[in-house]
Amino acid sequence: QVQLVESGGGLVQAGGSLGLSCAFSGRAASSYTMGWFRQAPGKEREFVAAIRWSGTMSDYADSVKGRFTISRDNAKNTVYLQMSSLKPEDTAVYCCAAARPRYTIVVNATASYDYWGQGTQVTVSS
Prior knowledge:
Layout: E1 2-7, E2 10-13, E3 18-26, E4 33-39, E5 46-51, E6 58-60, E7 68-73, E8 78-83, E9 92-99, E10 115-116, E11 120-125
């Protein structure tokens, strides 16, 4: 079992920056691929970014490439999402997720992830 707890959400103006953190715990959690997903009101959950256990491979949704950066510190059992040049359309609940180490690529499908955090609200005002 892996537990995930997000923090760092809040209200920010368009063009601003915000950092999210996800503390993970559980047996072998540092070997899991970690991802960030988001869900806006009335929309389906969508992939944002993911990073493999070593931190050497990552993937991003086209909508956030060049603006968001995912990273992880396995010594601190934490994965981060640094968001910059935020837009109102980035407003959503952001969730951290963990996928068991059964893939050799960075997975971006919701169904590939086994554990989920509760989420943290990010609101970008125009």
